[in-house]
Every structure is written in C-alpha cells, then in structure tokens.
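Dear Dr. H.,

I hope your travels went smoothly. While you were away I took the liberty of generating a structure for the chain from your last submission, since the lab meeting agenda had it listed for discussion. I wanted you to have the full record in hand beforehand rather than looking at slides cold. The sequence, exactly as received, is reproduced here:
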Amino acid sequence: MLGLQWGDLDLDAGTLRVERSVEETRSSLRLKSPKTRAGRRNISLPPDTVAMLRAHKVKQLELRLVLGMGNIERDTLVFSDVEGRMLNPHAVSRAWRRVCDAKQFPRVSFHALRHTHVSVLIRAGVDVLTISRRLGHAKASVTLDVYGHLIGGADAAAAKAIEGLLK
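The corresponding predicted structure, in token form, is as follows:
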C-alpha cells in the first residue's frame, strides 16, 4: 500500500497494479520490487474503495496545490506525508494502533488486515487460486499452507456434490 503510485491505479476500471513496496533500511526508506514475479499483480477494487480513492485524490491534489507542489503525477505516492515523501511502515502501524484504541477495536496489527481480507474471501467461497493471486503468492500451495485451516466444510460440500451427481 505504501509503495502505491497514482499511475498504478485505473480508477475507471477499478483496478490497481502492485509494482513496489516500501522497505525500511538502517538509514532510510526505499522503494523495492515485490519478492516474486507473482508479487507484481493486478487487483480488482470494490466500488466503495474506488470512490474513497477518488475522494482521497481530490484532497491530495488540493493540498499539493496549496503547498505549491503542483499536480499529481503518475509517480506521486497515493499515501504519503504532507510533503509527498514515503510513509514509514512502523509509523503507519503505530497510527493504526491508535485508531484501534480510539475506536475500541481489538488491537491487531495493520498487517493482520491482510489475513482478515483472506478470511473474508475464503468464507465467501472465493477459490484459492484467485486468493493466491490477490496476495501475490508465487504458488497457490503457499496460500493453502498458510490459510488452509480456514477452509472448513469443504468435505461436506464435496459429499453433497457427489450425491447430486449420483441421483
């Protein structure tokens, strides 16, 4: 999310392209490529998310113009500090903890939202290959190794499918 640039988004199509992430080194932050080729991926966005991103872009453009930073370019970060610089991943995690505390949400890491996303997709019956591609896993087997325990009731569904075939 922190490496996302406006050129990676196609808001009309409702998609984003993952091309990079932010890495914290001893001396600074830097953009880096995903760990695997599968890490570079297209992800479809729900309409509400597209609407939020459009509104965020308007606010970001207004702020940039007030600060004399000019227009939003393709390489402008979607999420940045006021001066357009990369956000520190640890600072984002701290801010997330503050939000959880203020809203009296369970205290979970920001990264745990990725796991929540997967859990929701599995419960909705989305196939493992699609989930794996959304996550950027090189193989669906990685997704199954990490999240396979969440796939419940599949055996009962298999028995029901076979029963329907045999009738």
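Two observations you may find useful: DSSP finds six helices and five strands in the chain. The mean pLDDT is 91.

With kind regards,
E. W.
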